[in-house]
Design goal:
The complex is a heterodimer of chains A (478) and B (414). Chain A has 478 residues and is of the alpha/beta class. Helix content of chain A is 24%, strand content 33%. In chain A, helix 10 packs across helix 11. Classes of the chains: A alpha/beta (478), B alpha/beta (414). At the A-B interface, strand 23 and strand 24 of A face strand 20 and strand 21 of B.
């Protein structure tokens, strides 16, 4: 596809690629590839050993096959596991040194790196392909003792923290994609909030898939020490691609006593075209552990992109009185497929969890909520509330709900409700009557349907998310 | 517990060589997987294999039929009856009906031994089933009195498995109320595996009640497959408390428009009882309704499971489907698991489900106590109120009273 065509392609606003010379790992998945990645990142020996351990485990694991969206077999030997923008080999010290082409990309994405950085008050750790090339606002964060850097940097500079927490929430041998990530992860973010510190700004990372045939294997680790608070934003956009790209990230959150982590995602990877050709496979493992007393982890996600979205951001409520929350909007159009939901595992006393999930399905898409709420025997006086609503916008799409509910104790309460309906004709008619065209009306109604989740997003994200909801459903109601 | 199976097809009499080879094929397929375990998605919450290995030393298929075939007839209301002993059809009596309108026979095993099934109990049934009945109601005939099917099991079934199949056909515009009455009070562990095929033709209506007479160490599995035609009705009331293990696997196919189905269940489980209600409602045509309400009270170390699935095909517009499961957990060792599933491909539908589990409302207990009612009675009152709600939809009459009284006995102890 020529660049001119891409510019004219309004269906995917963020569909452009940047011409940057790449350093690539050898093709395929092998010990050699892992050693290459570890070597190029100048990792210490223990990290390489950790990766190899994961790789050995991977050899005996099988890809899961219980999921609803089926996909063609992925040829893991035909992928590049590492590619970095060339300029990364000489790390830039300020924004001026950064490859102007990369800066151009950020501008198109609307990342407030240059002009808007102070206005928005966001420190951006922009991940371009696999290496963090710029980290801003570091000074202010450093003053408070907050560590916000790429995971590769953290492995070098804070090995104790990484050693202690990496793999403590998602173990090496968890499941196929998580283990794959542990073996070959290239970069990602690392956040550490020291005790009794409130992170003064929302931390944010923009991921972009750029090099063709490169699976993205991000690894994020966020640790909120006692009494601290952090809000983390993750947003994704990806350029136009024809072949499917695999994205298997791992995100681990650890909240200690009285700490709170808020993790928000807006995911808009390339969903494939109207005929279902291309698009990203988004197979992400996200898990948070409320380790300490009175800790809280809140996941908010707006999933509009990807050919297949397959993820379950989960909370393990270990500490007494800990709280887990999950707010989700999943929109699937055309031939997109989503199998998403959450797991809330109550282990501590008086733990609470809340799940609000909104699924919207249009075109030929398939949208699935799958979740687990498990209250173990010792988690006395625990509570869960779950609500999953689905909206169907055509008779070729599907909406499914599979909740697993396990209550193993007499003092805990679980409530679950789910509904599936189509978009209300009367509401549409009412809007039309007042001069809104069909698409505006749908956008208004759907945004209303999703309100409970959108409200949870930080301001900047909420605006973008609302627009995304509208764009994702264009042309879905005839 | 594979090494302890003692299944012999040659115990079964009067089989043609063709039948024997088909049954052997089924048995071989069963041996490949054995009894279902928790790796099987449908048995995730009820690991039958481990339950059986903990309670049975070995298991053999039954060929025993007692000489004395006496049983106690329900005298609370007038009824027709069929009586089965260890699965074998022994006697029938339809004093209130026109004789030529009702066709009742031994189940015909010449057909219906399908091989393709993922359910290993289905295969085992195909391999070992004997006895059972087939019942057909003529066109435009409405039975005046209910039909009680006495499922009697003798006391000498220690470590045996009883397999049989039933078939029920309701022809156009007919009506039938069935009460499946499980009658056994032995202390021995035994297993029952029943497959039942129900065909409800146009404008017909079937009420299917399952109730257990007393506590028994029976490990019960029943698979009901039903197909509904236009304007038909199928209602299920499940009151099987008292069985040691029970899994009722109900498949309802709403194949033509305007058909209705419902499943109501009230269970009060004690000790280590483990009961599961699994439903699969397939909405294959438009304008059909389905309604499910499953209520469990869990005492001691009991476990209740509800797995319900509503499937709505893309042509099944105007579907109205509802699922509700509620559980009261009264002991920390008790457990309730639910998996209420929706799989929907049509857009103009109304589908919802709800599931709650929790403890009894202590404020209500306090209210009753403050009015002079002792605590245990207060609990019983609230449990009774909670469970008997599912009988509400039944028409007033002797049957309802009978069921209410049975339910009360189940709650207050046999």
């Amino acid at each position: 596809m020529k660049p001119e065509d891409l510019k004219n392609n309004k269906d995917y606003k963020y569909g452009f690629t940047t011409d940057v010379e790449n350093v690539r790992s050898p093709k395929g998945l092998s010990e050699e590839t892992i050693r290459f990645i570890s070597n190029i990142k100048k990792e210490p020996k223990w990290m390489l050993e950790w990766r190899l351990k994961a790789f050995n485990r991977l050899k005996v694991l099988k890809e899961p096959d219980w999921q609803k969206p089926k996909y063609p077999k992925i040829d893991y030997q035909n992928l590049y596991y590492y590619s970095a923008p060339k300029s990364a080999s000489e790390k830039p010290k300020s924004l001026d040194e950064i490859d102007p082409k990369i800066l151009e990309t950020y501008k198109k994405l609307g990342i407030p790196l240059v002009e808007q950085k102070r206005l928005n008050g966001i420190a951006v750790d922009a991940v371009f392909d696999s290496v963090s090339v710029a980290t801003t606002f570091k000074d202010e964060l450093t003053k408070k003792g907050i560590i916000f850097c790429s995971i590769s940097e953290a492995i070098q500079k804070h090995p104790d923290l990484v050693k202690k927490y990496l793999g403590s929430v998602i173990p090496l041998s968890d499941h196929y994609f998580a283990t794959l990530n542990s073996a070959v992860f290239t970069d990602g973010s690392f956040v550490y909030i020291p005790p009794n510190t409130k992170c003064p700004m929302e931390l944010s990372t923009y991921f972009r898939i750029n090099a063709s045939e490169t699976g993205q294997f991000e690894r994020t680790l966020i640790i909120a020490d006692k009494g601290s608070y952090v809000s983390y934003l993750e947003g994704c956009t990806a350029p136009m691609r024809d072949e499917n790209q695999l994205h298997a990230a791992n995100v681990e959150l650890v909240a200690l006593d009285d700490a709170e982590i808020k993790y928000s995602t807006v995911q808009n990877w390339y969903p494939g075209d109207e005929k279902g050709v291309g698009g990203i496979y988004n197979f992400v493992t996200k898990r948070g552990a409320c380790r300490g007393k009175n800790s809280k982890i809140s996941w908010t996600q707006v999933e509009t992109g990807s050919a297949i979205t397959w993820k379950y951001p989960s909370c393990i409520l270990q500490g007494d009185n800990s709280v887990g929350e999950f707010y989700s909007i999943a929109i699937t159009n055309n031939f997109q497929k989503a199998d998403t939901g959450t797991k809330m595992i109550h282990l501590g006393k008086n733990t609470k969890s809340k799940i609000i999930s909104k699924g919207i399905s249009a075109g030929n898409a398939d949208n699935m909520y799958r979740g687990l709420v498990e209250i173990k025997n010792k988690a006395i006086n625990s509570r869960n509330y779950t609500q999953c609503d689905s909206l169907l916008m055509s008779n070729k799409c599907g909406a499914h709900t599979i909740p697993y509910i396990k209550n193993n104790n007499a003092t805990s309460t679980i409530e679950h409700e789910a509904t599936t309906t189509k978009i209300n004709e009367e509401q549409l008619y009412y809007c039309n009557q007042r001069g809104l065209d069909q698409e505006e009306a749908v956008s208004l109604i759907v945004n209303g349907f999703c309100k409970e989740v959108l409200q949870q997003l930080p301001m900047e994200f909420a605006v973008e998310a609302q627009k995304l909801v509208a764009i994702s459903l264009e042309g879905s109601v005839g | 517990m594979k090494q302890n199976y003692d299944f012999k097809i040659d115990k079964i009499k009067d089989l043609t060589s063709e039948e024997i080879s088909l049954r052997k094929k089924n048995l071989d397929l069963f041996y490949q997987t054995g009894f279902p375990n928790k790796k099987d998605e449908d048995w995730k919450f009820s690991d039958l294999n481990s339950i059986l290995s903990n309670n049975f030393n070995k298991i053999a298929n039954n060929d025993f039929l007692p000489r004395e075939k006496e049983f106690k007839i329900i005298d609370e209301f007038e009824h027709n009856f069929i009586s089965l002993f260890n699965g074998k059809l022994i006697s029938k009596d339809f004093p209130y009906e026109e004789k030529n309108k009702i066709l009742i026979n031994n189940f015909n095993y010449k057909d219906g031994l399908a091989l393709d099934s993922k359910n290993s109990l289905y295969l085992l049934n195909n391999a070992l089933a004997t006895g059972g009945f087939s019942l057909e109601i003529s066109k435009n005939y409405k039975l005046k009195k209910p039909l009680v099917v006495y499922n009697n099991f003798s006391n000498s079934l220690k470590e045996k498995i009883v397999n049989y199949k039933n078939s029920i056909i309701l022809n156009e515009n007919s009506e039938l109320n069935i009460i499946n009455y499980i009658n056994n009070s032995s202390k021995e562990n035994f297993m029952v595996n029943i497959l039942e095929n129900i065909n409800i033709k146009k404008d017909s209506s079937l009420n299917n009640i399952l109730i257990n007479n007393s506590k028994c160490n029976c490990y019960f599995y029943k698979y009901i497959k039903s197909d509904l035609e236009k304007n038909s009705n199928f209602k299920n009331y499940l009151l099987s408390s008292g069985l040691k293990f029970n899994k009722l696997d109900i498949e309802i196919n709403l194949n033509e428009e305007n058909s209705n189905s419902s499943v109501f269940s009230a269970l009060n489980l004690i000790n280590k009882e483990h009961q599961e209600i699994k439903t699969r409602i397939n909405h294959n045509a438009s304008n059909c309704n389905s309604y499910q309400k499953v209520k469990n009270v869990l005492n001691d170390e009991s476990k209740g499971v509800y797995q319900g699935k509503i499937f709505v095909k893309n042509i099944a517009q105007k579907t109205d489907a509802y699922q509700l499961s509620k559980a009261l957990i009264l002991n920390d060792a008790a457990e309730f698991d639910a998996k209420p599933e929706l799989e929907i491909y049509a857009d103009d539908v109304k589908c919802s489900h709800g599931s709650t589990s929790g403890s009894i409302d202590l404020n209500s207990i306090h209210y009753l106590k403050s009015r002079g009612i002792p605590e245990n009675e207060a609990y019983q009152m609230l449990i009774n109120g909670f469970l008997s709600e599912i009988l509400e939809k039944l028409p007033e009459g002797k049957i309802k009273n009978f069921l209410k009284e049975k339910l009360e006995r189940q709650i207050n102890g046999y």
